Amino acid sequence: NRYKIISRRNSYHGATYGALSATGLPDFVEPFHPLVPGFVKAMSTFCYHCELGLEPSSCNLACLKNMEQTILGEKPGTVAAVIVDPIPGSNTGYPVPPDGYIPGLRALCDKYGILLIFDEVQVGFGKTGKMFACENWNVVPDFLCLAKGFTGGYLPMGVVIVKEGIANEFRKPGKDFHHGFTFSGNPTIACVVLKVIEIIKKENLVQKAVETGKYLEENLRILYEYPVVGDIRGIGMLWAVELVEDRKTKKPLDSKLKVGTWIRDYCWKKGMILRNNAEILVIAPALIMTREQVDFMIDIIDEAIREAIKHFKF
Ligand SMILES: Cc1ncc(COP(=O)(O)O)c(C=O)c1O
To answer: Mind telling me which PANTHER family this protein's record contains (predicted)?
Structure first.
């Protein structure tokens, strides 16, 4: 009877039909309706733009309560899994969930017998300063999805790690896993991934991400000197700078001005590839980045913001 999957608003899980149905970004999803049935959305943990207008210091984890209400509203016995991107990705600029949310989510899933899926496609493999993002809370999901970090996008490879008990279901006599693809388990790429894991360990790159990430954070925070910088958020080597018209009220910039895109183009002209999602500037460098490269990057972003302030007369 359990066929529903609860995901969250503002999440991104991919562009294939099932993953898109779990995705919670209306602009990405709406052109493809109708979606796969059984996908239900709960509140996100995007604290800077909290759906309820609350502050993390006093909200009492309203987002976790919303998840429980959503489960109860759907009748827990019909819910197979909850899927979350524990730290949402570049589309929202790495909003780290409030303390207690991820352990609370694990407890909720256990309470109602629901499987917990962590989509760490973007935030896994050292990027948060831990090999897996879920280690930041010592929480173990039932499914862990990984991809980008271990090939850097140069080769196509994604994996889903499952708990032993789930894998064993498919090993029972008479049971099979009929869900393969021509290019599944590609041995050449698997060799590359094993080598990457070996190098990450040998060169201590996860610890390096902690140290370089701290340096990156300290230097990024200097950008608060510009009133147009509303929020700087992130963890490890994953950071975002969100630009606003008014820091106090969080009033957004006029989207027609396309300030974020102007800044992105400025950085590109200066020799640095920056991604923006509207007014969110996204910074997710490789684990091997040096302090000198951080300085280079921050200098260009700083200059780009200064030039944008002049250009748009803020
Ligand atoms: C969190 C997350 N999940 C899933 C995906 C989808 O991965 P793919 O494009 O390889 O299907 C992405 C891609 O950006 C992602 O960031």
So the answer is: AMINOTRANSFERASE (PTHR43094), AMINOTRANSFERASE CLASS-III (PTHR43094:SF1)
CA of 12 to the centre of ligand 1 (A): 7
- Report d(CA 273, CA 301) in Å as an integer: 11
Closest atom of ligand 1 to 156 CA is 10
Does the structure show a pLDDT above 90 at 178? no
Q: Would you kindly state where each structural domain of the chain is located, as residue ranges?
A: 4-146, 205-312
In CATH terms, 205-312 corresponds, of 3.90.1150.10, 3.10.310.10, 3.40.30.10, 3.40.605.10, to 3.90.1150.10
List, for residues 69-78, the tens digit of each pLDDT value. 999 999 999 9
* Residues flanking ligand 1, CB < 6 Å: 12-14, 85, 89, 119, 121-122, 147, 158
pLDDT digits (tens, 9 = 90+) for 113-144: 999 999 999 999 999 999 999 999 999 999 99
- Residue at token pair 């149905």: 21
Closest ligand 1 atom to the C-alpha of 122? 16
ipTM: 0.99
Dihedral, CA atoms, 184, 275, 54, 309, nearest 10 degrees?
Answer: 180
**pLDDT for 85:** 97
Cis geometry, peptide bond prior to residue 31 (ω within 30 degrees of 0): no
